[in-house]
Amino acid sequence: xxxxxxxxxxxxxxxxxxxxxxxxxxxxxxxxxxxxxxxxxxxxxxxxxxxxxxxxxxxxxxxxxxxxxxxxxxxxxxxxxxxxxxxxxxxxxxxxxxxxxxxxxxxxxxxxxxxxxxxxxxxxxxxxxxxxxxxxxxxxxxxxxxxxxxxxxxxxxxxxxxxxxxxxxxxxxxxxxxxxxxxxxxxxxxxxxxxxxxxxxxxxxxxxxxxxxxxxxxxxxxxxxxxxxxxxxxxxxxxxxxxxxxxxxxxxxxxxxxxxxxxxxxxxxxxxxxxxxxxxxxxxxxxxxxxxxxxxxxxxxxxxxxxxxxxxxxxxxxxxxxxxxxxxxxxxxxxxxxxxxxxxxxxxxxxxxxxxxxxxxxxxxxxxxxxxxxxxxxxxxxxxxxxxxxxxxxxxxxxx
Length: 400
Hints:
With 400 residues, the chain is an alpha/beta fold. Helices cover 42% and strands 12% of the residues.
């Protein structure tokens, strides 16, 4: 089955403004590129959209206001702001933190990408302003990314769109809880908020299971927005980005779980005689022997490095998603104890690539290094693309 081109399903609804509520303006490749992909998809469907530029309130700040009043909350906010500024002076102006200095160029490139490629609303600073901003939209879509992760330090209540009146359509698209289960203490309020959605979809099966458990709703499972855009479209975006001339293995990992991925990359490098390029992401990435770590990597450079790599080794969901989308040979180094790997496992199962999972270095020695870039279940991937885009069409048809 061939994916229908966007032009055949285009609607003409530029007068219908759609608000997108996601984890915006963070120096995170997946978060930034999924926002771009969803906005581009909505544009291709004929809708004008903008990302609601919400200031995410900290949980502790809200708790202080509830228990001790507004003045205490304001004092806390001022204290946090002063502490952040002090850290900035110490680490950035005095050049004492090498890691932060290395990431400085990366953040600049993220801001430039956002300025050039994303459309934002005016800044929304307070919960009251969030409620008022609903009047600007015919529908608000929450997602994708881990917008419902209860472990985050900020208040996630707005991401359940509880501030929206019935006149504005409430839609979730590829929203994620980020974990396989949530504490029982969250069940009642989550159920109340989830039941108020007009159209409900999630990115992972684990998310659908959580919603079924706490709200008895069958949520649709859709693709991450980055997979709605085919490789040829991503290629147009990065056409002018300089390429790396040498053949290389790309190593891209999240958090400090570097060891296994680096071990696998080095084994492949010995066999293939390729250099290793690692995208710098943590302090552990500084001065790794026999590896070229690149720090000044924005969203466009990230895409280019994945597209042009001979082989990719990653433990990232979006590292995996883009490897699949570009049809690249790759391995996924995962930790079985990590409760957040369900999203990666679901994606690999969908496209029939569970054999790319590596849990230990000894396990890898038994596998074939000369993996093919094919074997992706493109038929299934295209079917899921059609299904995911159809979900959006159906949800938005109610505002036409």
